[in-house]
Design goal:
Layout: H1 2-9, H2 17-51, H3 56-85, H4 87-119, H5 124-136, H6 141-160, H7 169-229, H8 239-256, E1 260-267, H9 270-277, H10 279-297, E2 303-306, E3 311-317, H11 321-336, E4 348-355, H12 363-379, E5 385-389
Parallel strand pairs: 4-5
Antiparallel strand pairs: 1-3, 1-4, 2-3
Helix pairs in contact: 2-3, 2-4, 3-4, 4-5, 4-6, 5-6, 5-7, 6-7, 9-10, 10-11
Length: about 400
């Protein structure tokens, strides 16, 4: 049962570079805080030893011990600050350095505990180091077991060397029990980091998936918008979108006092083309005409619509009547020169209306006037452009 539960915590991420960086990063952050406290505390201890009545021999021991830890902590603190700035490049070196400092701290604590035990008879330094290392530093299970068990063993052996103090079996067992508790605490903290790291990976993956889904959704929305606004055959804007775009262009021209010109085009005798050459040829004819319209209107930032079966409408904001007429004549000539079938001739009729919008006018009115101009072109013999003026 226990082994089954431990399998849930077994992680291949232990060898994962990103996980090792996170582990080292946490230890450096904790070490920064702890060592700042240790340096101040050891400095206070040095002052305290110097002003209190301590046996001269032991005073020397304490001064040496406190000075050593103070200098080592200051140096380590300096290195930690440097490692934190380049953690992505130096995380391996930093992790080895953490272990090296722990070994130093273990040996220092063994000596300090032995001095305290022989001089005063207590081993509080043993407890402080044991609990501090298990609670503050994140260690992998194997390293934690090796470090804490070694620390216990070396400390107890060193204390047993003092003939003036006797350690009974119960004392050793209690210390062993506390060491095991410290290992469990260290293990729990490590597994908490593992769970947190796995949770972060899930969040990152979910965010990545969500970002991808949003990207695909935006892409689909753009495609849906394009499909809803575009005529499939001609690939021009459709009649449904004309109502929206006409009002938008009208308001913009009204706001900026620009001229709006509308060109309405109809393919002459299109029913006869369908009847004589077939609907596929008729469709090809519509596609060819649409390409010519785009060729001349795209540089003008105009908007082309398939208004009906063979009818097209072009909105040309900012385009003057004379310029629009020249463009429409070029469109007409190009369409006349189309050669879809050997004996097939294509022509168009067109109507132009140009106006500077004002608040008293209705945007649909300019379309009706362009349609009226188209009707006049048809009535006058087709294959021509008729201009409708609004006075």
């Amino acid at each position: 049962m226990i082994s089954f539960k431990l399998k849930k915590f077994k992680i291949p991420e232990e060898k994962n570079e990103q996980f090792c960086k996170e582990l080292t990063k946490r230890n450096l952050s904790t070490g920064h805080i702890v060592l700042s406290f240790v340096t101040v505390f050891e400095l206070i201890n040095l002052v305290f030893v110097c002003i209190t009545s301590v046996d001269k021999v032991y005073r020397v021991f304490y001064i040496v011990l406190y000075s050593t830890l103070f200098l080592a902590s200051v140096g380590t603190l300096f290195l930690i600050i440097r490692f934190k700035k380049s953690i992505n490049k130096s995380y391996k070196t930093a992790s080895y350095f953490v272990y090296l400092y722990l070994i130093f701290l273990m040996l220092w604590s063994v000596i300090k505990t032995f001095v305290d035990f022989t001089y005063r008879g207590y081993i509080i330094n043993f407890f402080v180091t044991l609990i501090g290392c298990s609670c503050l530093i994140l260690l992998k299970p194997k390293i934690s077991a090796i470090f804490l068990s070694s620390y216990y063993t070396i400390s107890m052996v060193s204390l047993l060397l003092d003939d003036r103090k006797l350690l009974d079996v119960y004392f050793l067992m209690n210390m062993a029990f506390i060491t095991i508790i410290a290992m469990i605490v260290s293990l729990i903290r490590y597994f908490d980091l593992v769970k947190e790291y796995k949770f972060q990976l899930r969040i990152i993956k979910q965010n990545r998936d969500l970002k991808y889904m949003n990207k695909m959704l935006n892409k689909l929305n753009l495609e849906l918008k394009r499909v809803s606004e575009t005529d499939r055959l001609s690939e021009l804007y459709n009649r449904w979108y004309l109502d929206t775009k006409l009002n938008e262009v009208w308001e913009n021209c009204l706001k900026e006092a620009k001229t709006l010109t509308v060109l309405m085009i109809d393919i002459d005798d299109f029913k006869q083309i369908n009847d004589k050459y077939g609907h596929f040829t008729g469709d090809e004819c519509i596609r060819k005409v649409a390409k010519i319209l785009l060729k001349y209107t795209t540089p003008l930032a105009a908007f082309c619509f398939r208004f009906g079966g063979e009818e097209f409408l072009i909105l040309m904001p900012g385009c003057q009547l004379e310029e629009a007429y020249k463009i429409s004549e070029m469109i007409r000539r190009d369409i006349n020169s189309l050669n879809i079938k050997r004996d097939m001739k294509i022509s168009i009729s067109g109507g132009i209306c140009s106006v500077t919008p004002n608040s008293k006018m209705n945007p649909e009115e300019i379309v009706h006037r362009a349609d009226k101009a188209l009707y006049n072109a048809k009535a006058k013999g087709k294959n021509m452009i008729w201009v409708e003026e609004i006075k």
